[in-house]
Specification:
The chain is mainly α. It folds into two domains: 87 residues, Winged helix-like DNA-binding domain superfamily/Winged helix DNA-binding domain (Arc Repressor Mutant, subunit A, Orthogonal Bundle); 84 residues, no CATH class. The protein is built from nine helices and three strands, in the order H-H-E-H-H-E-E-H-H-H-H-H. It has a three-stranded antiparallel beta sheet. A hairpin with a 5-residue loop joins strand 2 and strand 3. The longest helix has 14 residues. About 18% of the residues have low confidence. It comes from Aggregatibacter aphrophilus (strain NJ8700). InterPro entries: WH-like_DNA-bd_sf (IPR036388). This is Helix-turn-helix domain-containing protein. Pfam families: HTH_36.
């Protein structure tokens, strides 16, 4: 096998893939002088084509000037073909197409790579965040609050859907606040959702209420019930003694 001839054969255009394969196989069998003598049947078997197709393609290569053929006498008295490759000629201008009687396909282990000059327009993926912001805008949530809520829901692995926003709106109505306020509270308290029954007003209000109820000095005077007072009698007016 001549690597030089193999490289030349691969770079030459012959106008037909099967003919190109036959030429490459001839180069594979040739020595550095371009001489080889495979039989038609051998070429047909290797290229997975009929013997007639192998003969037709070799004859076409001879007409194109890439191959010359001579008769060769064997020691047993039989004759065979001797081929001489002329691959330095390159691609002739009058290359012919595939003969009408040529059959067969490329070998199973051959790979054909197709290159298209036309640009391929791949569909652009719509940003999930942009979709969420558009939906929030329908509910009147825009600007920084919308961005913060999108990031908040992402951190909670919760999508912003119409159903979720309708749930926020419903609970906000129950609580008597706006949707914007409900969303802001959920972000501040790191809640995934919002429920009107939750302590959304803050612990400070509840603490203040409890303080008023248990204060030692409550205004209703309950702090004095059950207490004993030691008062100096001299300090009590005579009319009250």
């Amino acid at each position: 096998m001549s690597m030089r001839l193999m490289a030349q054969a691969m770079s030459i255009k012959v106008g037909n893939p099967l003919r190109k394969l036959v030429l490459i196989k001839l180069a594979d069998n040739a020595n550095d002088d371009g001489i080889c003598f495979p039989s038609y049947q051998y070429i047909a078997d290797v290229c997975e084509i009929s013997k007639a197709s192998a003969r037709t393609h070799i004859d076409a290569l001879i007409k194109m000037g890439f191959v010359s053929k001579k008769a060769r006498k064997n020691k047993d008295g039989s004759s065979s073909n001797l081929y001489l490759l002329h691959l330095e000629k390159g691609m002739p201008a009058d290359s012919t197409g595939m003969p009408a009687d040529s059959t067969g396909g490329m070998p199973a282990d051959s790979t054909i790579t197709c290159h298209s000059s036309e640009p391929v327009n791949k569909p652009k993926k719509t940003s999930q965040k942009n979709t969420a912001l558009s939906l929030l805008a329908e509910f009147g949530i825009t600007g920084q609050l919308a961005d913060d809520f999108a990031e908040h829901r992402k951190s909670k692995k919760a999508a912003i859907t119409r159903t979720a926003l309708e749930g926020f709106q419903r609970e906000a109505d129950k609580a008597g606040i706006t949707l914007e306020e409900a969303i802001a509270i959920a972000i501040e308290r790191d809640w995934r959702g919002f429920n009107a029954s939750w302590n959304w007003r803050g612990d400070s209000i509840a603490t203040a209420t409890n303080t008023r109820k248990t204060s030692t000095f409550a205004d209703d005077g309950s702090w004095a019930v059950g207490r004993k007072l030691n008062i100096d009698p001299e300090l009590i007016p005579e009319e009250l003694r």
